[in-house]
Amino acid sequence: MEKAIEVTGLKRRYGDFTAVDGISLHVAPGEVYGLLGTNGAGKTSTLEVMEGLAEPSEGTVRVLGHDPVSGRASVRPYTGIMLQSGGLPQALTVEETVTMWAGTCSAPLPTDEVLRRVQLEHRSDVKVGSLSGGEQRRLDLACALVGNPTLVFLDEPTTGLDPESRRHVWGLLKELNNAGVTMVLTTHYLEEAEFLCHRIAIMHRGNIEVEGTPAQLTETVPSEISFGLGGGVPALSGLPDLPGTATHLADGHVSITTSHLQRDTLSILQWADQHSVVSLWVDEPLQ
Fold this sequence. Notes:
6-stranded mixed sheet, 4-stranded antiparallel sheet, Rossmann fold, 287 residues, 9 helices
């Protein structure tokens, strides 16, 4: 089956600075592919080349079988783009904005349907400049979806959203993917990537350090489980054997580094029930 996206040896430079350093990846039709990493890892720079908003310094990119820059006319009708910051006109209303965006699409969805999907139908007459940050992000998403795309690029789609709105957006994106829409998204949230993505690439300093399914990455990217010991408890008394972990003890504080987060957290919680353990928490990678 032809790949929806194929990237080979992609480099992107800004003067002397290399933001993306020779990465290769592919996205299958109907797949949700996530790019994770800290700020400056190269996620947005990679996404902009896929979107056709920038040309690669080196390497090749094919989207739906075409170069996304020179073949824009063949790609754009089928793609939706949600930028990290939409920059929409502040003086227009929500409805006017989506209607204006729909005018650039060959077969747009009805504006009221799109606003309902992103839970902005009750704000249709409000000017963009009066929206909250979370509402503006949902409006950015509406503009990405109004063209009824088969491929959507989402740059940090839930940044600024409250937990309830974030879960709603996740549900909407799941629904779209179940209908066959291919997606590429960037995110800082490991939980978001685990929920939405079929495969994830973790980027660092312009390179893909590791790539795989959420289950594979959970087993390969270290996490840290930390807790304090109450007074009078022998240090690590009876702690279960946890193969493949590294344990550090200092001043009654314990840190366990593990590549088997789910397995080891369960074991430690069971042990904690029988001991005076306080302040147990988990630091997941990239979260």
